[in-house]
Amino acid sequence: MKTVLITGCSSGYGLATAQRFHREGWNVVATMRTPRADVLAPGERMTVLPLDVTDPASISDAVASSGPIDVLVNNAGIGAVGAFEATPMSLTRELFETNTFGAIAMTQAVVPQMRERRSGVVVNVTSSVTLAAMPLAAVYTASKMAIEGFTASLALELEYFGVRAKLVEPGYGPSTRFTENGSRRVEGLIPESYAGFAQPVFASFAAPAAVTTPEDVAEAVLRAATDTSGQLRFPAGEDAVALAKSA
Questions:
Q1: Distance CA 154, CA 167 (A)
Q2: Which end of the chain is more exposed for a tag (fewer CB within 10 A), N or C?
Q3: What would the DSSP string read from start to end of 54-90?
Q4: 37-58: per-residue pLDDT in tens?
């Protein structure tokens, strides 16, 4: 029976992905900063561990407690939207610490055991902002584009050892806690000079033509984790699939 470790399982995509793998009969190690039994309870084939992907000691403890990991899903992420010139460098670093360096650090912690076994899969969850440019998301996009390049190169590097690296690119999911957190980070990031530009952009966010559900992402992650065709990118959600086709 294979084991998957998933980061960022407190809500949204990570929670749905943990539940989907569990239904498929996998051993699931679901991680979150602060485990909550009312969100995801430990049980048969379900282990819930604390993990802060920005903390090296936390990463080491979680990986050591997980046993052999067949699939690593780097899902933990934070969002922020706003005018770039009004985005403080502290927020830029916060996004990169989780979205970019956190995923890279987790991968570096798990790859050695996969290389030694000559099997395993790393699935990095990015965003459809990597498929088509979105205004007022320059720093967030940069943090995700970095993982796109990282994963594409890593896939070539690890192929020699029988280890695969994949990308899942979710579309817009306005109902997730990730989006709610990103909305809170917009405070103070839209100067008055940007108001006329930002208003129609946020109006389009409020009435999207198509949305991505957590279940869409969970399905794409499962396909990526079990794919042996060599496909690198797996868009998730109707909107992301459409963007991928037009890219």
A1: 11
A2: N
A3: T-HHHHHHHHHHH-S-SEEEE-------S-GGGS-HH
A4: 999 999 999 999 999 999 999 9
At 209, the pLDDT band (50, 70, 90 cuts) reads confident
Measured torsion, CA atoms of residues 104, 30, 58, 61, in degrees rounded to the nearest 10: -110
Give me the number of domains the chain comprises.
1
Please check whether residue 10 is in contact with residue 36, taking contact to mean a CB–CB distance below 8 angstroms.
Answer: yes
Q: Residue 231 corresponds to which tokens in the numbers above?
A: 């496909």
**Residue 214 is part of a domain; what is its CATH number?**
3.40.50.720
CA 74 to chain centre: 5
Domain range for 179 is 3-246
Q: Give which of 170, 144, 150 is closest to 243, Cα–Cα.
A: 170
Residue with tokens 């993982």: 147
